[in-house]
Fold this protein.
Amino acid sequence: MKKIIILTSLITLTVVALGQDKKKARYYFEDVQDYASASDEYFELLKEDPDNLEYNFNIAISYLNSNIDKSLAIPYLEKLVANKEVSDDAKYYLGRAYALGYQFNKAIASYKNFLEKTDKNDPLRENAERQIEYCQNAKELMKFPLSVSFENLGREVNSEYDDYFPFIPLDESFIIFNSK
């Protein structure tokens, strides 16, 4: 009798803990859009339920929307695309993950697969067509890599903090950038 009570207690605690973890993952994913934390939470949930489609989708989207290596989304999206019950949007996101992982041929194939299966009014359709062009351009640009070096322009231009995203107009009359 003691064994049954202990086993029942353990099962109840596990179910409660998983429920809390799922709420925490959803909170990070949906409410605060802290995708790095969401991916950590969904990764833990996937250990318990690796075939859960929602967890696989949300961890993939978390990777795509965070500063984590975006190509980490690929295996989760490949699992989703292999499942017939999943929305065709997963094919679009798989294309994004492939492209961000420099797998341009796979990205183009995934985008084309998405375009074949989706409705003409799908809001992602126009973007998928544009992404195919970007992948084709990237393939060409990768054939001729440029040697680039960055140089701090001194106190008159650069701040003591990290500077990001410079913008220079065509006439090169000024430079604007973000500083942390």
Summary: The beta strands are 163-167, 176-179. Residues 5-18 have pLDDT under 50 and may be disordered.
